[in-house]
Amino acid sequence: MKTITIYEDQVRRELGDLYGLFFEDLNHAADGGLYAELVRNRSFEFCAMDREGYHGLTAWEKSGQLEWEIGSAAPLNEKNPHYLSIQAQPDSFVENSGYNTGIYVEKGKVYRLSFYAKVREISCPILVSIERKEQEGSADFGEHCAEGRLCAEGQEWKKYELRLTADQTTAQGRLRLTFPEGGALCLDMVSLFPEDTFRGRKNGLRQDIAQALCEMKPKFLRFPGGCLTHAGSLDENAHDSMYRWENTLGPVEERPSRRNSWGYNQSMGLGYYEYFLFCEDIGAKPLPVLPGGFNPHTGEGAPLEEIGKWVQEALDLIEFANGGTDTKWGGLRARMGHEKPFGLEYLAIGNEEIGAGFFERYPYFHRAVREKYPQIKLINSAGPFSVGEGYEAGWSSAKKYGSDLIDEHYYCSPEWFLANMHHYDDYDEKGPKVFLGEYASWGNTYYNALVEAAYMTHLERAKAVGLACYAPMLCNVDYVNWKPDMLWFDNHRILKTPNYYVQKLFMIYQGTQELEFTTSGLDKIIRLSEKDRLDGSVSLRGNDIAGRIRNVAFVSYGPDKKLEIADFDVSEDNCEIRLADSDAEGFDLEFDFCRTAGRKGLKIFFGKKGEGNFVEWEFGGWDNWDCNLSSVCNGRASTISHRIFRVEDRDYRLRLEVRGRRIRTYINGELYNDATYRMPELEELYLAASRDGEKTILKAVNLTGEAKKVMIRFEEQKQKNATHKTVEVRRAEVTELKENALTAENTFEYPDTVVPHTRQTVVRGNELEWEFAEHSMTVITVEKITP
């Protein structure tokens, strides 16, 4: 019979803070998401720099005889210089549409309204209401959902607050400010929060989203990004600046909003103080990411003689988190309401960094933090792929300077994960530990989640891996920048994906120590393909460019064949041009190329069978930074080789060599990419064992289409050596994800299609016979029953 033997007193390693969460404000994850503010564009700071078509009145409407304009002559403060100036006739109004279908309010719940105002006359009565819009696309409104009255007075800015109780529920609400007697006034920072925020905090977080994250029991939270950390201007006062943590502190009306690099305005209401509080509230260690004074998107970097300012910001952040109240930044933390230090242990510098600019600057941060705060674990950056030039530069830097961890990122197809389950087996456990800071398998299906679960068993068993978190975490369904995502939401509902449940199970049942185990009868490797060559069509197209292709030579081997292909042009319409078909053991493709328009390069496809299955050589990809090889399976790409290269308007001689599944590319005779296309395969069971106190935990993933009946044995050396053996009784809890179609997804209409189910059983003695269902994930927790 197939067996798994877990050695309960043989510890392989401490698991530490292995599984956590990653938050980045993309997909409106903060504003319109986790951050509970219901008003969109509350400070009238939206502008075209944020997104084409945005302006100071975005999300605001008016009705009746009312004149309005965005003012800046006498602002509430200089950091948010715009406000709304109104000249209103009686019974005219302005209103805000919020996010998604509108502002969501729930019957019986209380909402906190606040705004700043100044009037040009003696006073201005204001009727505040939440109106229910009848239906999408309709200009008609139903009854008030809530209302209250106040009166603005005085010619200086003054804050007004009001509590509103909803008398009905709607997801199509509008916040309306009506001026019954008319008036001339200015408004700014118009805000509406549910009183029922997570943990009841003011300026707090949306209850349902925060609670779903809290229930996962993450060990850490990485924030605030992500690409938004380092994308933007080096000028901290610019609207499109990089994410500078000091700009996120203090009263929300004094925090300068910024252009979010994902294409919208970021209010900064959810700032570093709120991140630290959230970490504390959910029991997660904070893991902030700071820019390293270099923008890899543009290649701009702070001059080295000015890098000290950026380094000081890192030191100040540590003082803000950990410093005593007698320090500058620790004192500020205390004045903001948190006298006790936050206990910061981790600090990351940079995100997905490529190019020498970052790695020239990283040592300045490293040395300064090591000198002043040697207890802080420093995290370096290894680029956006699992291989390649940025990856190698990051690892070289981390080893040279002794970084504690290095942040790896990759988004790949399920097939890549199946082919690379042992990716970390040969990593040096004594060197910098791996922080797998972003990963996912391009999908929210049950199959995607199971493949990720299988991969996580190997992460848990890899001694070189220190931390790991799935990404991205959150997505508003009406503002999608990136998918897949772990949790989806609109203005009143959340959707937990199968990926969410997998991550939650691994976090809750992580354990504190990994245990040794052995198997018998479970060693079979199931190959999903015996393919030994990359046969299929060969083609190319421009990547938003125009250019000329000349002197094309195509030769295939086994059988040998040579094709003559005439010179041709590639056009900016990205039309794909088929060059040849190959079912041979290998081929060479060589040609001259010159770009005549555009700013990128070429995409060359081979081994192509259908629209979604091929290998791609991208010459001048992404933002004209990359020379990449990627495998594409069912439309999902995985980078298997990466080099930095920028295409110019000049002549190039390009060569592609394919032999079996090995691929090489050359530019002007120089080797650039050299990779082997690895084929996916299955293990009979993917396993990880750990313990948490007196509990023994077994995680098992069955990706095959057959159930596996296995005898699980729990052994301790002291039991084997005992003279008088007694039959132990153990309590077992079994949680399973099973009996789902591989294509199954959770939807808002059917949110519980894929959910785990838990049952209890009893183990007598040290053996438990269990059948692991086909296409399933199982967590078995066993604990001795005290006599």
Explain briefly what this protein structure is.
This protein is 14% helix and 42% strand. It is mainly beta and 787 residues long.
Describe the protein in words.
Helix 3 packs across helix 5 and helix 8 (446-461) packs parallel to helix 9 (498-508). It is built from 10 helices and 50 strands. A 9-stranded mixed β-sheet has the order 48-47-50-45-44-28-1-46-49. The chain is globular, with a radius of gyration of 29 Å. The model has no long low-confidence stretch (mean pLDDT 95). The protein has 787 residues and is mainly beta.
* Share of helix, binned: 10-25%
- Major sheet size, sense and barrel closure: 9 strands, mixed
Mean pLDDT: 95
Q: Based on CA inertia axes, which overall geometry fits?
A: globular
- Report the total helices: 10
Strand content: 35-45%
Radius of gyration: 29 Å
* Parts with pLDDT < 50 across at least 5 consecutive residues: none
Strand order of the largest sheet: 48-47-50-45-44-28-1-46-49
Structural class: mainly beta
The count of β-strands is 50
Distance between the termini: 31 Å
